[in-house]
Request: fold
Amino acid sequence: MKRYSNTSLIKFIVNKIKHLKPKVIILLLLLIIIFSVIISIILVNNSKQKWVTYAGNNLNENRYPGYKEAIDKLKKEHPNWEFTLFYTKLDWKDVIKNESHSNKNMPLNLVPKSDKYGKDWQCKKDKGKTYDNGNWLCASSKAIEYKMDPRILLNENDIFQLKDLQYAENSTTKEGIMKKTKNTFLEGSSIAEAILKSGKDNNIDPYFIVSRLIQEQGKKGTKLSRGYKYKDKIVYNPFNIAASGNLQSTIINNAAEYAYSNEWFSLEKALLEGVNFINTKYINEKQSTLYLQKFDIIKENTLYNNQYMQNLLAPTSESQILIEQYENSNTLDSNFNFIIPLYENMPKNLTKEPKGE
Reply:
């Protein structure tokens, strides 16, 4: 068999092409272009994120270990629940790396400065540097990995971090809202009606609105939820929108300025328009779970940037408030959908919880 060097092979092909008819050459070029386009489309589609309803037999256990058994158990215990597999098409190690703190930027994830969250929870790069009025520390990669591992959430206590927050008919009531908001800054019939209306108008779960407000403001509320005098008006900003800065005075003034510019001069108006803000900026951007609002893993967004809060523990505490409301109103077995993120190259074993002090 005759062998050619690369140069000789190219010359051979060129000589052969020279003897082809023009129509044949054009046809070959068209075939090459079509083939290249098809390959490009395949590559793009393979990298696109997709959402697929879990059917019990459509999850590759070898590629995505540790999911199926837990999902099947939840489905058996709660037949009305549905599960959506969210193929993120993101590599697990890359995600953790991007969520972890670099010295160049403000941390995406913070943990409370507390004895409960010791050195394993804190990143080493900041060497104890505090944020947000000195009450928060940069979260470690170990802590982020633990809180981001979806498989750890596949149990009755944590699954509501993955609940689709869209409005579900017959799962919430005004009475349920009033029961949860009793003895809080949200107490009262008019506030409950505003919460229910804002949920329906924006296709958002009203119980999520309650859990987000209590998570942000505490049961007794803060200056921004009880009414804060700014310039010549009393303003309200219960969702802490635009509440940024490293000093308490700066944080409050920035949030108050935002409320003032939007004429949020009553709690009801601030609630209605604040929910619309969350709907527009997060729910409509496919960040429709507590988990996805904390961790922006949606490729259509600017990855890792559109995150509602820095508090790494927020989805955990907020989901507990949410689940309590369903338990109190006997709607825990409503037709809920849970969105389960799947990452590429996940470790076989579940992530271990970081050690405390």
Notes: Residues 22-47 form the longest helix (26 residues). The chain has a mean pLDDT of 89.
